# Entry
Amino acid sequence: MLVVGYENLPGRRNAAAPVPAVVPASATAPASSNSASSNSSPAATLDAAAVQTAYETCVQKAFPTRADAAPRAAACSRALGSHQLKPDEVALARLTRGIARVALGDKVMASEDYLEAIKHYDRLINPANPDALNLFRRAAALDAIGETDKALADYSDAIKADPDASLAFLNRGILLATRKRSYDRAIQDFDRVLVLVPDNVEALISRGDAFIHLGDFGRGMADLDRAIALSPENAYAFLVRGLAYARRDDARAAMSDYDTTLKYDPNNVYALVNRAALFSLDRKPDLALKDLDRAILLDPTFARAFYNRGYVYFMQKSYDKAIEDYGAAIALDPEMGLAYNNRGLTRAIVGRDLTQALADSDMALKLMPTNLEVRDTRAFIYLKLGEPTQALKEYNDALDIDPSRAISLYGRGLAKIRAGDPAGGKADQAAAETLYPEVAQQFSMYGLD
# Structure
């Protein structure tokens, strides 16, 4: 097909998880170091006992999740607004509120908290004798603002300071896997966690996902099945296993796991978007749109949700809506080459803005220089523009890489015919129809035959 297919999302843990692989947030100018946010109620009149209660509710044992983010963010604001916390307490309260705010969808205010937490930890950490826990916490804040290399360095320093710091091994492994794609090194860290804390569910999930990415489906599924057996209501475990099944083209098992994810975490946008992908591939666009609409409502900054909804609209021939959603995805993620490609293709199909369509395909090619779909799209646009020689060049570039690519063969045949080589063109089209009997219908649907 000419359209780039549905994007299946990586199974990254939400920023508010107990052991966060936190989504980067855009930085804003930080407020004063021990102030409550502008939308929190004043807390300066709290007595010492009330401040302590608020602080303990804020930090608790683990970082916030979506389930408890709202009360914990409020408790953090009360404690911070009292101006009675010690510097290390301010740092942890800021970090905790940042994670809670991400879970609540307020990434801008969360960024302020992360930056303030980092400032406090910078002052608290003695480079000559660093505290492992403070290093760990600063690493979490650095990860949250996208400072991956600095976060990795802090996790490594935390491990040096405390070789039994299982959470530092776990978070370093998650970063190595999700940000660096260094799955072998990540697995070493997860192995260490499981020595220190046998049957650690987070480590089993993360190691299982790493094995899957390395193509070791057997060991990956063994870890994920074990994690689910230990924690049968763990939504994230089902999500990651669903992704693994999807990679194996087991749509039924993947759907079951996405359903279970949403049973235990109804607002999980990754499960909604991935389940929508399966609905779309199963030709159930209404169900796909329902999931995607909800995902966008929950997280209107989720570029992939807009991209996938654009794909559904495209398949329904709602081209104006598709163009709008691809544009929204690009506005949120200017590096999303797939969205540029599909918007360019859609513009070419409707026959409007062909110059803009070509500009979209130029950007897609810059971002994805080896993607053959982009070559096909560019050739299609050139055919629409009445430039068969340029189209021929694009199709040849695609066929140099994949000589059996039916779409490119048929398109090249059409370009040859329009360039004055009907015999060569018909030969290409015949070869393409042998490989893919419905290829002519594809071009006819888009106004080229």
